[in-house]
């Protein structure tokens, strides 16, 4: 019986105008938890070839604590840029 109801809904959805289909999609998406919507988006992007690499894990803040700027001889690049723009 559930399959019959689903088939009826799908048949009716096929008769909707494009803007109505978008509204239907938005409503259905709003019923899903945020994580499932995000996973669905990622799945569709991968299926279209728009997302080919796995998501990188967030950077570890500890990696940045030890960061030190590289010492460079001469004037700072920002001064060079300002000077060049003034000319």
Notes on the structure:
About 60% of the residues lie in helices and about 0% in strands. The chain is mainly alpha-helical. The longest helix is centred in the first third of the chain and has 14 residues, at about 20-30. It is built from 5 helices and no strands. It has a domain at about 1-55. The protein is elongated, with a radius of gyration of 26 Å. The model has no long low-confidence stretch (mean pLDDT about 85). The protein has helices spanning about 1-15, 20-30, 35-45, 60-65, 75-85. The termini are far apart.
List keywords for this structure.
87 residues, mainly alpha, elongated
How would you briefly describe this protein structure?
The chain is 62% helix and 0% strand. By secondary structure, it is mainly α.
The total strand number stands at 0
- Classify the secondary structure makeup into a structural class: mainly alpha
Q: What string gives the helices and strands in order? A: HHHHH
Q: How much helical structure, as a percent, in the residues?
A: 55-70%
Q: Indicate the radius of gyration in whole angstroms.
A: 26 Å
How many helices does DSSP assign? 5
Overall mean pLDDT score?
Answer: 84
| Binned strand content | under 5%
- The dominant shape is elongated
N-C termini distance: 79 Å
Major sheet attributes: none
Low-confidence stretches: none
């Amino acid at each position: 019986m559930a399959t019959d109801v689903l088939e009826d809904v799908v048949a009716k959805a096929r008769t909707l105008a494009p803007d109505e289909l978008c509204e239907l999609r938005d409503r259905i998406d709003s019923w899903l938890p945020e994580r499932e919507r995000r996973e669905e988006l990622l799945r569709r992007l991968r299926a279209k070839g728009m997302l080919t690499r796995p998501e990188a894990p967030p950077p570890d803040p500890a990696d940045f604590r030890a960061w030190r700027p590289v010492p460079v001889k001469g004037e700072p690049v920002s001064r060079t840029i300002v000077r060049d723009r003034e000319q």
